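$ ./design --mode recover --in tokens.txt
reading tokens...
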């Protein structure tokens, strides 16, 4: 890679104010495997005494303090967000094991859902609606000066067929007041196939680089769950992108949606559309007729 990798030092651990006590949580079955441990379905008895169904992410015992910091950082970012298209954090339960409690979205990952039910999902209805919801959540995130850095179909969860939500804020960062980009110092587990040229080359992340990833996410959706660039390695992907090549349109993807994707993959960050423009494009079909 043109970008050198450095390990980041563990920093001071993040503190949370209203921690959840273990007595108010019941862990049920495992619903998935996350990067830092299993994700459980469970029940949380809230402060009013009402029970709500929740998703509980558990930090595995053998994780390093850097992993713990990343886990807490994810919760910390989520604690600042409140939008219908973004998964809500309910709280942290100090361990061990350390638990992150989130609202439960029952249909799970959009990517898995699309792959399992392709015949029940219309590009002109569900996919465009989910695309609008993701753009509107990202627009909110941009206004709050956060960059997501891991926008991909696997990280969009479905509450039901009418509501998609952005999740996985493990790589997310808040931008400093004086800069519209974040400079990463470590390239650990980077999803290169979703990354914009300025991110894989210089480790620079902004809302415009999130827009590039949004374009790849659209491609995954409208290709009904194909893997971007298939078997290609990250280095090969970088090579073809630098030559000006891009992902190709797949059969069920409407022409106008593919044009939007291509706009998201403009080499220059400034030439890409904003999330506000993208949410308008997808929110009203009439825009496609113009
Ligand atoms: O594809 P899935 O079923 O949806 O498997 C992954 C797994 O946990 C690891 O991330 C699922 N998951 C994560 N957060 C939630 C949540 N808030 N509600 C429901 N499922 C979740 C995700």
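writing sequence...
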């Amino acid at each position: 890679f043109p970008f050198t990798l450095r390990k980041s030092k563990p920093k001071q651990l993040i503190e949370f104010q209203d921690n959840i006590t273990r007595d108010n949580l019941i862990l049920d079955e495992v619903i998935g495997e996350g990067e830092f441990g299993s994700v459980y379905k469970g029940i949380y008895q809230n402060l009013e005494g009402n029970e709500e169904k929740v998703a509980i992410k558990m930090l595995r015992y053998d994780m390093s303090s850097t992993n713990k910091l990343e886990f807490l950082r994810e919760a910390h970012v989520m604690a600042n967000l409140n939008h219908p298209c973004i998964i809500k954090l309910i709280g942290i339960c100090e361990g061990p094991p350390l638990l992150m409690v989130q609202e439960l979205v029952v249909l799970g990952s959009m990517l898995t859902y699309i792959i399992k039910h392709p015949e029940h999902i219309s590009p002109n209805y569900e996919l465009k609606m989910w695309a609008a919801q993701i753009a509107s959540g990202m627009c909110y995130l941009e206004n709050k000066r956060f960059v997501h850095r891991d926008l991909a179909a696997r990280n969009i969860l479905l509450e039901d067929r009418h509501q998609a939500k952005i999740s996985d804020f493990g790589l997310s960062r808040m931008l400093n007041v004086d800069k519209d980009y974040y400079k990463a110092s470590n390239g650990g587990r980077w999803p290169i196939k979703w990354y914009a040229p300025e991110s894989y080359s210089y480790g620079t992340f902004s809302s415009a680089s999130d827009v590039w990833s949004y374009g790849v996410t659209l491609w995954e959706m409208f290709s009904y769950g194909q893997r971007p660039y298939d078997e290609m390695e990250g280095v090969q992907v970088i090579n073809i992108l630098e030559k000006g090549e891009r992902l190709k349109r797949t059969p069920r993807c409407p022409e106008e949606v593919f044009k939007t994707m291509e706009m998201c993959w403009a080499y220059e960050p400034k030439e890409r559309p904003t999330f506000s423009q993208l949410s308008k494009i997808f929110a009203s079909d009439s825009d496609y007729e113009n």
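exit 0
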